[in-house]
Amino acid sequence: MRRQDVRRLIKVCRLRTLQSCTVAFAGLALAILLVGNGAAQSANGKGRRIANNTPRFVQQAENVGPEDSSKVIEVTFWLQQNKQNTLHPLVQQLYQKDSPRYHHWLTPAELNASFAPKEEDTQVMAEFLAAHNLSVVSVSRNNLYVKAQGTVSDVQNALHVQINKFKIGGKTYRANTSDPVIEGPAGALVAAVGGMDDLEFQPHFVRPVDPDTNLPFPAVPLGPAPFGVFFEGQCFRPPEIDTFTTHGGLPIATYQGNRYGADITNNQLGHLPPCGYSPSELHKAYKLDPVYNAGYDGTGQAVVIVDAFGSPTIQEDSELFSQVYGLPDINLTVICPSGQCTLTNTGWATETTLDVEWAHAIAPNAAIILVVAKTNSFDDLNAAVSHAVTNHLGNVISNSYGNLESIIPQALLDYTNQLIETAAAVGISVNFSTGDDGDFTTVAPPPFAPTVSFPASSPWATSIGGTSLSLKKNSTIDFQTGWGNNITRIVNTIAQGSTPVVPPLNQGFDFGGGGGVSGYFAKPPFQNSLPGAFRHEPDIAYLADPYTGVEVICDGVSCGTGPAGPAVSVIGGTSLACPMFSGLWAVAAQKAGEALGQAAQLVYGLPPSAIDDIVPVGSKNNVSGVIHTSTGNIVLSPAQLVPPLENTITFYSALYNSPFSTRWFVLSFGTDTSLTTGPGWDNVTGVGTPTGMPFLNAVAHAAGH
Q1: What is the pLDDT of residues 365-403, one digit of tens each?
Q2: Structural domain tally of the chain?
Q3: DSSP single-letter state for residue 68
Q4: Is 79 exposed, middle or buried (0-12, 13-18, 19+ CB in 10 A)?
Q5: Sign of CA dihedral 662, 664, 668, 669
Q6: Which DSSP letter does residue 641 get?
Q7: Which domain CATH number covers 496?
Q8: Do 600 and 507 share a domain, yes or no?
Q9: Residue in 141, 149, 120, 133 with CA at minimum distance from that of residue 6
Q10: How far apart are CA 21 and CA 99, in angstroms?
Q11: Does pTM top 0.85 for this prediction?
């Protein structure tokens, strides 16, 4: 088969359906077998090993045997960029203030012309794949990758690997046990191979849940009338004393201290339990009203949001969100680069809805461009980010997902980092949430944790951490602290007589913002003031605590919260913080009058007026208690009611009557596994939270405007 025929078939894969592409390359495979193509003949030759392309857990995790050899999987061949040795120094110059190239961003056309792989490279890959019984699924328009499909057996034969199944922390993953080897001329072209493992990026949203069942409180159906807020806006109440008896006798428990959340019997609109904030409340809290009054609302900018699967009702839900909260009509565009959006995942539909609605809430006149990946695989989400960068859809890309840095193959860490660096080269800030599990020790066993979330740990990403937020009655800030919740059950359900739990059941860490030190990436120059030699996260923070979360409107079936029809629920997580900050960064670009590039490069070193430094918050009214029993009294200090505190000394705790289960708990704030909130940069909130117009002015000044 002639090379021009291969080129023609590659164009089919760029422009047509998966079926058309697969059929076309089946013919190519047959032609190669008949002719004896050189790539096929190279099977006996020497191949190139793609170094560090094995998941790092395979040496420690439990190996439970081979994967089904007949199973069909997709593998993605990420191709080497041209002139790799010159790309990194060039991008560094774009961010050095004393460089003549400072902020002279490349255009996507310039980036592709100078650094993208060539079409001839994809042709060589197509020949290699066809010779090994693998069908081409798609080819990137800028030649960054070639995605192929085949059985596990064919992939093993083509790449000289064994693919087994492994158990980590109760989960089973597929993974290759050694680095792939690619024979012939294709070997020199490949930087990394994805898809041999089935690791996936996970969304970083969380709901306030019943601590006993982990089930979320049902969403509140949205009737035809009520416009405005739904949940209680004052999450914290004055101290109180509560006494609980055992059917009128001993044991008797008395607890006193701060109170969290509205009464569970409250059904008054605007005061539903436990609590949740509306856009207008956060506009006031974060001093955004003066920003909007000055005309800075994202006009002329676009916030690009990358998610997997999408939501079948995102257009209707986000339009209703705008109407209910008095926001401008949303300008939403949905793009499916793969040509298909499955729209069948309620978790990712919830993530998508949160991202779109709250990016719009912070940048109400910016366009929202939702780029939907076919699945949440590393390759599909990276391909979606690549599409947004290649087409320069906007000056900021919001990504509310990640996975443990410690388990991802280093070759894919490197390639994803390089992809994010190309975004920085064209003036785009690619923002990632840092996760909702603190240092991840509660969800992953050693040696996989403690660790950080990736891609947030990329030196070219801006990593967004989380805070807890208390508002006064006028919606100004009462206090902020780093997000981290511990929880202890102290009283049984109403059905059980609201009897005291003796002794209290310490359930430990519940949620908290991710952060810490990368185990792989070197510290970027903008973090030179921080200790050590490796990348720290987060860079900056915004609201994330689901116990002080935000109202979201989503169809009950789409988001898995109830029957069909729009409903309001409260959601948090660093998946909230990331689109909020991304919306603000679009407003900052409008204020500056140009693309600002990677946000992390500018947020360090801003004046105190621009950033609220988040510090630990304590209270003289933290919850304490005493339980009277037939054998004596049990006296409980605040620290005994919210363990484990690990490295935390100062925290805030409150009594919480859960509307989900009717149990009573002691809930803490500012207790985030081994991570701690403190003055200056910290590993929960980064440098702090933005302060409205002073932040925008300081960023513009730091960028040279």
Answers
A1: 999 999 999 999 999 999 999 999 999 999 999 999 999
A2: 2
A3: P
A4: buried
A5: positive
A6: G
A7: 3.40.50.200
A8: yes
A9: 120
A10: 46
A11: yes
Quick one: average pLDDT of 562-575? Answer: 94
Q: Are strands 566-571 and 220-221 parallel, antiparallel or unpaired?
A: antiparallel
Helix (H) or strand (E) holding 115: helix 108-115
Cα–Cα distance measured from residue 451 to residue 535, given in angstroms and rounded to the nearest whole number: 12
Q: Which domain holds residue 21?
A: 3-81+116-198
Burial class (CB in 10 A: 0-12, 13-18, 19+), 640: middle
User: Whole-angstrom Cα distance, residue 13 to residue 466?
Assistant: 41
For residue 618, the tally of other CB atoms under 10 A from its CB is 16
CA distance 203 to 178: 29
CA distances from 482 to 50, 161, 233, 475, 513 (A): 41, 44, 19, 19, 8
Rounded average pLDDT over 152-167: 97
Q: Which residues pair with 463 in a beta bridge?
A: 432
Would the pLDDT of 118 be above 90?
Answer: yes
Tokens of 575: 């998946």
Could you tell me what percentage of the chain is helix, strand and coil, using 3-state DSSP and rounding each to the nearest 5?
Answer: 30, 30, 40
Residue given tokens 């800075």 in the structure block = 296
Same domain for 377 and 285, yes or no, is yes
Contact 163, 152 (CB under 8 A): yes
Q: Is residue 88 part of a domain?
A: no
- Do 277 and 419 have their domain in common? yes
State the Cα torsion 94-98-101-105 to the nearest 10°: 40
